[in-house]
Amino acid sequence: MRILLGISGGIAAYKIPSLLRLLVKNGHHVETMPTAHALQFVTPLTLKTLSKNPVHLPSQEDVSNHVLLSRGLDLLLIAPATANIIGKLAHGLAGDSLSTTSLMATCPKLIIPSMHTEMWINPAVQDNIQRLRQQHISILGPDTGDLACDDIGIGRMADPNLIALAVEAHGRLSPLTSLQGKKILISSGGTQEAIDPVRVIGNRSSGQLGQMLAHLASFYGAEVTLISTSQPSISNPAIHVVLASSAMQVQAALSEHFPHTDILLMASAVSDFTLPYQIQKIKRSSSLTLSLESTPDILAGLVTRKTTQKIIGFCLSDPSSDLVQIAIEKLHAKGLDAIVANTTHNLGNPQREGTFIRKDHTSFAIGPRPILDFAHAILQNTVLL
Fold first, then answer.
1. Which residues are CB-neighbours of 349 under 8 A, at least 6 positions away?
2. SS3 call for 341
3. Residue 62 has what DSSP assignment?
4. Distance between CA 105 and CA 111 in Å, rounded?
5. Cα–Cα–Cα angle for 368, 373, 377, nearest 5°?
């Protein structure tokens, strides 16, 4: 993918070499266009060395060059995007090379805001952000965290890893515009049941698929709540994360958020068994017998409370089993709208494959594909329910 990375003059510009390295590593052709103020934070030599491509400097005022550059782009990415450049883009101003090129570019645009909290929450800036969204320009962030001048608050530039993931989603997949404004609830990861203060029983689910579903849904404009058994590996300010480690905690979190959702994707691997908790650490001995008890059937319980929600379950079975038939039986037994059948081969595998099955038994085979494409295919089938 051919990307123009516009860099405006915010302190977060010092992170751009890390982002640039990620984009190039992912195989993209990246050219950079820093503003005059951006050059106070990052040098042309650094940008040229990491991108292995020309750097379009503010002093290069060849208009025809900017015209040709804007016409050959697959994505215009501006990071960090200051209040100044956001205002220019929102109102169609062309005061410098970056804003001029942006006005001419007809490719998708992804804007990564970064500024102090007081600037971000200013009504003028928020109006400009809404103007950009109305022009179908994607906005990612900002995040909450450490800012300049020892401040803490919203305004921090999104994590470079998250930006790189958003670029992949823009470049490889068709956006699911029907997710705009939808409330999506996703459970993710493997639960753990405490034996004593230091020991647990659990499973090997990484939660990667649930997290990828959450990221993609948020990129496409959904309001996402992620019930996760572990802290997501990449911070995404657009996702409301609720941490829940045990089956009972996951059940409580889902029960609270389910009435306010449009779609539930039950991607977590909830333990089938729990056990009485021992308050003190069990001493080591030559043998130990644990008395296991069944955990509640969370999904079946939520189905009984269903009104207009679409509920998609997940079925994990051994590859040697009749996976599709097992999934269909589970789909009907629990009263789901659809189910994703996949095998234990998917555990920890960057390539995923499975089958999306609707309640009328029509199905769609997915994969093997990278987890990003696999998650997109699940969402693509979900919106068609």
1. none
2. strand
3. -
4. 14
5. 90
Among 31, 28, 22, which Cα is nearest to 1's?
28
128 flagged as catalytic: no
Residue in 186, 167, 83, 61 with CA at minimum distance from that of residue 127? 83
Reported as half-sphere exposure (CB side, CA atoms, 13 A), residue 380 has a value of 14
What separation in angstroms does the CA of 168 have from each of 29, 277, 352? 13, 44, 17
**CA dist 232 to 70, 201, 210, 222, 240, Å?**
36, 21, 10, 18, 11
Partner residues linked to 78 by β-bridges: 6, 111
Sheet harboring 29-34: ordered strands across? 29-34, 2-7, 75-81, 109-113, 138-139
Q: What's the pLDDT score for residue 63?
A: 56
Mean pLDDT by 10 residues, the chain (385 residues): 96 96 97 96 97 88 69 95 97 91 94 96 97 94 88 93 96 88 96 93 90 96 96 94 96 96 96 91 85 92 95 84 88 95 75 92 90 96 93
User: For the CA atoms of 164, 166, 168, 173, what is the dihedral angle to 10 degrees?
Assistant: 180
Q: Classify residue 252 as exposed, middle or buried by CB count within 10 Å of its CB (0-12, 13-18, 19+).
A: middle
CA atoms within 13 A on the CB side of 31: 19
Question: Among the options 53, 122, 203, 349, which is catalytic?
Answer: 203
> Whole-angstrom Cα distance, residue 269 to residue 203?
8
d(CA 347, CA 344): 6
Match 């998609």 to its residue by tokens: 312
How many CA atoms does the CB half-sphere of 154 hold within 13 Å? 12
User: How many C-beta atoms lie closer than 10 Å to residue 287's C-beta?
Assistant: 4
Q: Return the pLDDT at 64.
A: 59
> In the numeric block, which tokens belong to residue 226?
């992620």
pTM greater than the 0.85 cutoff: yes
Radius of gyration of the chain (CA): 24
Look at residue 247 in the predicted model and tell me its pLDDT: 95
